[in-house]
Amino acid sequence: MAASAPSASTGTARLVSYATATLTGTVNPHGQDTSYFFQYGPTRAYGSQTAIADAGAGTSTVHVSLAVGGLQPLTRYHFRLIAVNASGASTGSDASFTTKRVPLSLAILVGPNPVTYGGNAFVQGTLSGTGSAGAAVQLQANPFPYLGGFVNIGNAQLTSASGGFSFPVFGLTQVTQFRVVTRSSHAVVSPIAVEAVAVRVTSHVGRTSRRHFARIYGTVTPAEDGAQVGILRIAHGRGVLVGGTALRHRSATSSAFSRVVPVHAGVYRVLVRVTSGAQISNYSRPLLIR
Q: Could you tell me the CA-to-CA distances from 195 to 116, 141, 180 in Å, in that order?
């Protein structure tokens, strides 16, 4: 049998995503070592081609395929199969496929974190994917102890041209979970971000009749009656405990502390440890004792 050029038939594109696809076809080598490749591109001029692969030297039709990547989403691509051996080349007919849209996804960050009781924060993030610009997104919150479920906070926003958004949150009083959802028929939900809220500690220094002693006193908001209070002297960047006490009742909204401790010239801070879960522990501002 006289040697002849291979035959090539372009197939379909499979496993099409927003950036990749697998191009298929069939080749008959007609008994000679045969290679094949695909040409592809946004027009029938193609412009790109795959690596060259081996179709063997058989006399029957074989199914071939090669993967392509780096495609643009929602774009129509043309492709064709070309087979080559020592006797010549064969070109399959033109076929086409359209890549899919990039799935939407949300990423968020809440900060500053933590905030002091009553403070403000921002929930910022980005909606990525096809159609991310000008999309409606809604902030939702679920405060500690997380039993009420997520509820909408404020009004929805439209994302920027790059998919960005920023929600202000005012007057935080307890540790809160946040998430952002798209307002669409197929809602996209962000991962949960947790904003910690630290108790507010105010502290003062009072004189005593005893030399080298001082009264450290102040308040904690919200009320955390019974919580432990540590008075620390800052030495070489570390806190050294010089005294402690427990918070006592002051009002429905705050607790108080007072403790006489030995002092030397230097910087002191008060640490209030809380375990309620609604808030986290916090330090007072530094106290300078001369």
A: 11, 10, 14
Contacts of 45 (CB under 8 A, 6+ apart): none
User: Which residues are CB-neighbours of 2 under 8 A, at least 6 positions away?
Assistant: none
Q: Is omega for the bond preceding 114 within 30 degrees of 0, making it cis?
A: yes
Q: What is the pTM of this model?
A: 0.80
* Cα gap 38→93, rounded to integer Å: 11
| Cβ pair 284, 218 in contact under 8 A | yes
Q: What is the largest CA-CA distance in the chain?
A: 119
Query: What span, in angstroms and rounded, lies between the C-alpha atoms of 288 and 265?
Result: 8
Phi, psi dihedrals of residue 201, rounded to the nearest 5°: -115, 120
The answer, yes or no, to whether residue 2 has pLDDT greater than 70, is no
CATH superfamily for domain 105-197: Immunoglobulins (2.60.40.10)
Give the separation between CA 75 and CA 43, rounded to whole angstroms: 11
Contact 7, 90 (CB under 8 A): yes
- Spatial contact of 268 and 232, defined as CB atoms under 8 Å apart: yes
Find the mean pLDDT for residues 234-262: 96
* Superfamily of the domain at 7-98: Immunoglobulins (2.60.40.10)
With left for phi above 0 and alpha for psi between -120 and 50, is residue 86 left, alpha or beta? Answer: alpha
Q: Dihedral, CA atoms, 190, 185, 101, 97, nearest 10 degrees?
A: 150
